[in-house]
Design a protein that fits this description.
The complex is a heterodimer of chains A (about 500) and B (about 500). Chain A has helices at about 65-75, 175-190, 230-250, 295-305, 310-320, 325-330, 335-345, 350-365, 380-390, 395-410, 410-420, 425-440, 440-450, 455-465, 475-485, and strands at about 5-10, 10-25, 85, 90, 100-105, 115-120, 125-135, 140-145, 150-155, 160-165, 205-210, 220-225, 255-260, 265-275, 285, 290. With about 500 residues, chain A is α+β, with helices and mostly antiparallel strands. Chain A has 3 domains: about 5-300, no CATH class; about 305-420, no CATH class; about 425-485, Arc Repressor Mutant, subunit A, CATH 1.10.10.410. In chain A, strands 1, 2, 6, 7, 10, 11, 12, 13 and 14 form a 9-stranded mixed beta sheet that branches. In chain A, about 45% of the residues are buried. Chain B is about 40% helix and about 10% strand. Chain B has an 11-stranded mixed beta sheet with strand order 1-3-2-4-6-5-10-11-9-7-8, with helices on both faces. In chain B, strand 10 (about 440-450) and strand 11 form a beta hairpin. In chain B, helix 11 crosses helix 14. Classes of the chains: A alpha+beta (about 500), B alpha/beta (about 500).
């Protein structure tokens, strides 16, 4: 496991084994077994059908669109599509579960084994096994803050279609787990089977974490439930692994249990242990017939897939000469490759990618915007890079121009024109500025002549300052050297 | 005159209405009066008189405008397990106290669309669990064949109210549901025709579920032709029930005029139980003779797995019921017994709301599905079910219908078997195999035992071949004649 982190304990090294169960809300107009709407943010219980409320005599009917999205996701994961799958009832009582059972797929999931490739910042690539993907319905939610004594139930989420995507315990540290979740989100968004919105709960992860001595069999795992951001996922895993190592090094044992992560305290807490785990009494739902998929349906869905992130990544590296890491970062956002390609038309792809990954993503992140909401358009970013490439502005000026573009949405050309930021290429003007600086600083000039050549950089800075940064730095350097080291006429 | 009108069958009443011999108002009034007069039978659990009267006025208006539909003005009673819009529906369980559906079951809606009128919701075993109508929270139904000064006899169950109200000539037809014999057994006990269609022939949407893979709606009538007529109007594909068959419904009523020459009738040897009372085995022999006399070919057939049917049924049905009844939790509708936390709320609500037999079956169902027992019970029972279906498939290679007794006894006194659930379950011994195989079956009144109580013979047909089944049933009916309880007989 080269490259993956280990935990260095008092008694030696520990390796991690992590498997993720990701719940992805299927992007459909209606619920998995009823016609009710799925839009986020509706008033409580506004999107509940008789089926969702489990009224007597109501029956589920499968939503074909949700099945199609599960198949497309399976195909995108290079997974086996099971031609025969079965919906089971998972029985337990909870006020947010109107039927008293969740309809899920237990023994025969719709999608079998597949894989997902992740690219790490240090250039490593890992292939993570996918064990299965199955369809199931979400539960509603309890609302406790409406009254001091009563709880309320909101069933808007009840029956919303989820894909549960289960990885093998192939992830070796929290960085890999984070990369996996980001990559999976990118894939789901690229094919449109899930909007990947973690804030709205469209994507949540449970992490199975265990530790072991290098090369030893897998240790006892704990499952951390309901992690709703990449950051929390990573911190929860790191924290949980630390807890387990501390236990084992103290001679204690890890109990298999379900735990919750508290981000405030950065700790995990036991939720329930295996001993009082539910017996879910799974059995095939007799209200639904087994799902049988035709070859033609699968082929039609295969044909509906767009270019997948890994394919886009390879193409960006090949056609634009991007570094594998920049290409990976770009494909992590399904809107970014198109943005990049629009900006990179007739420009250096590498430079454009660098501007997007470093400057644009940084600014968007800080402002809390998505790429779709970017105030800087792709053609404008391309134009900015063009102005650098043709020498109109320097990289430093370009950063100022970018800041203004981001603030105002104006085009770089108009900013450069309005603010007179065009780079000074005229040697006479540069010479005049140099002369003025040298004349004003005889002391430094003497130092230089006495052999302290480092002062050259200081002079360059002064000239740039005098020209408000608009002088071409290369030319300033060149002319300064000539004047200082030349015939000494100054 | 009014009690004479209530004695009309469906086809007779339709003819009378069409000929102008009577009005819908008169017919409905006659049935309301007859149900009132039969109050001591305790057949009706929800009063529908006012609605029925209004509907009858409407029906007569339509007829005057020449807009009469096929069943215009025909009164039909409906088992309390069908959700009826605006009319209390409780499945005769305390836990559904106060529940008034905002929707109409597909099957009953089809009747009303054909012009029929709801006259009486009928008593039943709680959640259709029972064979004597004694588990009803509305109290037992008295079989109209009970001796005037003798003990009250049970009408059978679970559709006991529907069978009794038809036998008492207080309505031309009633709807029941059959899971393991719940239409056929009470039909036999009450001397009426009871038809369980092929599983999937009629929609289950809006019918309170007992065991989803077995439940099927069907008619109870005083003639085979009437059963055919009602089935024709309730059958057909329903996109809201995934298990309903997308098949055309044949013209069943017309098919009865068809020729039955060359009909091959099978007699399963495994049904010849030593314990069978001679009155029943004699009647069965009589049935064989009737068929032979009518020109049918009689064949002995073997259904080798018959003896496993009852145990398999009493695993599968409770298993499904345990999940189907989980929705009655006191959270959204029906009765609620308060608790300080959800678990206490569930426990109290369900303990207070469900009767003993229902609780027993939920416990059995939970047990056979639980971890470690699933394979030995539920899975095994499903395998038995497959074998039983295969037995029938084999038999139907050689014969067109099977002839068996409907029940192992005639109606028994109230309280006779309430302390012995197993003795009660044995009532279903001849009806359960066809249920497990999903086949259509009908009980036709065929004679009286030495105590003067009615006995039915059962015919089982091929899946979706109700036409042949009903044709064969008319042979029995023609040979045996019809039976009315002495108290009702003119």
């Amino acid at each position: 496991m080269t490259g993956a982190r280990t935990i260095v304990g008092a008694t030696g090294d520990w390796e991690l084994a992590i498997g993720l169960e990701v719940h992805a809300q299927v992007a459909t107009q209606s619920k998995l077994f009823s016609g009710a709407a799925t839009a986020f943010g509706a008033a409580a219980n506004a999107q509940v059908s008789l089926v969702d409320a489990a009224m007597p005599g109501m029956l589920p009917v499968i939503n074909r669109a949700a099945v199609d999205q599960a198949i497309r996701t399976g195909l995108a994961l290079g997974a086996e599509i099971n031609r025969f799958s079965v919906f089971d009832r998972k029985n337990y009582f909870y006020p947010d579960l109107p039927q008293g059972y969740q309809i899920s797929q237990y023994r025969h999931p719709i999608v079998g084994a597949g894989e997902l490739r992740i690219d790490m910042p240090d250039g490593r690539t890992r292939v993570v096994g996918i064990e299965r993907l199955h369809l199931e319905q979400d539960a509603g939610k309890l609302v406790h803050d409406r009254s001091a004594t009563d709880s309320h139930v909101d069933l808007n989420r009840a029956g919303i279609p989820l894909m549960e995507i289960v990885s093998r315990p192939d992830l070796r540290d929290w960085e890999e787990a984070g990369a996996y979740l980001r990559k999976l989100r990118a894939l789901l968004r690229a094919i449109g089977s899930c909007d990947g919105n973690m804030e709205q709960g469209s994507l949540r992860a449970d992490a199975n974490v265990s530790v072991r001595r290098p090369g030893a069999p897998l240790g006892t795992r704990c499952e951390i439930k309901n992690l709703n951001s990449v950051r929390f996922l990573m911190r929860a895993i790191e924290t949980e692994a630390g807890r387990q190592v501390a236990l084992l090094e103290a001679g204690e044992i890890v109990h298999q249990e379900t735990r919750l992560y508290d981000p405030q305290r950065n700790e995990t807490r036991a939720m329930r242990s295996k001993e009082d785990a539910h017996d879910y009494r799974y059995f095939p739902d007799p209200d639904l017939v087994p799902l049988q998929l035709s070859e033609s349906r699968i082929e039609r869905l295969r044909g509906s897939l767009p270019e997948l992130p890994d394919e886009t990544r390879e193409r960006l590296i090949r056609d634009y000469g991007l570094t594998p890491y920049d290409a990976s970062v770009l494909v992590a956002d399904p809107d970014a490759p198109r943005f990049f390609e629009a900006a990179a038309r007739d420009r250096s792809g590498k430079r454009v990618a660098n501007w997007i990954v470093t400057n644009l993503f940084g600014a968007l992140n800080e402002a809390g915007h998505t790429l779709a909401e970017s105030p800087v358009s792709a053609p404008d970013l391309g134009q900015l890079v063009g102005l650098i490439e043709n020498g109109t502005i320097s990289d430093r000026i370009a950063r100022d121009v970018f800041d203004e573009m981001f603030r105002t949405g104006a085009s770089p050309q108009s900013i450069v024109d309005a603010r007179g930021l065009r780079q000074i290429q005229d040697t006479d003007a540069i010479d005049a500025a140099i002369d003025a600086v040298l004349a004003a600083n005889p002391g430094q000039l003497d130092q230089y002549r006495a052999g302290k050549t480092k002062v050259l950089g200081w002079f360059v800075g002064q000239v740039m300052k005098a020209t408000r940064g608009q002088a071409n730095p290369g030319l300033v350097n060149e002319r300064l050297r000539q004047k200082l080291d030349g015939d000494g006429e100054a | 005159m009014s009690s004479d009108l209530a004695r009309l069958g469906v086809a007779e009443a339709a003819d009378g209405l069409a000929a102008g011999d009577c009005s819908a108002v008169e017919l409905v009034e006659a049935c309301i009066a007859a149900q009132e007069a039969a109050r001591d039978l305790n057949v009706v659990v929800a009063d529908t008189a006012e609605r029925a009267r209004a509907a009858a006025v409407h029906a007569d208006q339509r007829r005057r405008r020449n807009e009469a539909r096929p069943l215009e003005g025909i009164p039909v009673a409906v088992k309390d397990i069908f959700c009826t819009e605006g009319v209390a529906t409780t499945a005769c369980s305390r836990i559904l106290d106060g529940f008034v559906p905002e929707y109409e079951s597909t099957v009953s809606a089809r009747l009303w669309e054909a012009g029929a009128i709801l006259v009486g919701k009928t008593n039943m075993d709680e959640f259709a669990m029972g064979s004597s109508n004694e588990t009803s929270r509305c109290g037992p139904v008295r079989n109209p064949w009970s001796p005037v000064d003798g003990p009250s006899l049970v009408p059978g169950g679970s559709s006991g109210g529907s069978a009794a109200v038809v036998a008492a000539s207080a309505v031309p037809a009633a709807l029941g549901t059959d899971t393991g014999g719940s239409i056929r057994q009470p039909a036999s006990f009450c001397g009426v025709v009871g038809l369980k269609p092929t599983y999937g022939r009629c929609s289950r949407w809006g019918i309170i579920a007992f065991a989803s893979s077995l439940d099927q709606a069907g008619p109870l009538t005083r003639s085979v032709a009437d059963a055919a007529l009602i089935l024709e109007h309730i059958a057909g594909f329903d996109p809201r029930d995934s298990t309903s068959a997308d098949l055309a419904v044949p013209d069943l009523h017309a098919a009865l005029q068809g020729n039955v020459k060359g009909l091959r009738v099978g007699v399963p040897s495994e049904y010849r139980l030593d314990s069978l009372p001679s009155s029943i085995s004699d009647l069965w022999e009589q049935g064989i003779v009737w068929f032979r006399d009518a020109g049918a070919e009689l064949r002995e057939v073997s259904l080798p797995h018959t003896r496993y049917a009852l145990p398999a049924y009493y695993i599968v049905a409770p298993a499904e019921a345990s999940a189907n009844l989980a929705r009655y939790d006191g959270v959204r509708f029906g009765a609620r017994s308060m608790g300080t936390d959800p678990d206490e709320l569930y426990t109290r609500t369900r303990r207070d709301g469900f009767g003993e037999e229902v609780r027993r079956r939920i416990m059995i169902g939970g047990y056979v599905l639980s971890e470690g027992y699933y394979d030995a019970y539920y899975l095994r029972a499903q395998q038995v079910r497959t074998r039983i279906a295969e037995d029938f498939r084999q038999a139907f290679q050689d014969v067109d219908v099977l002839l068996t007794p409907t029940t192992p006894s005639s109606a028994f006194p109230e309280g006779d078997k309430t302390d012995d659930p197993l003795a009660m379950y044995v009532n279903d011994i001849f009806t359960v195999p066809a249920s497990l195989a999903g086949l259509p079956a009908i009980s036709v009144p065929a004679g009286l035992d030495e105590a003067g109580l009615p006995l039915g013979l059962q015919l089982v047909g091929r899946a979706f071949d109700e036409v042949t089944l009903l044709q064969a049933a008319t042979i029995l009916e023609d040979a045996a004649g019809t039976f009315r309880p002495p108290t009702v007989a003119a």
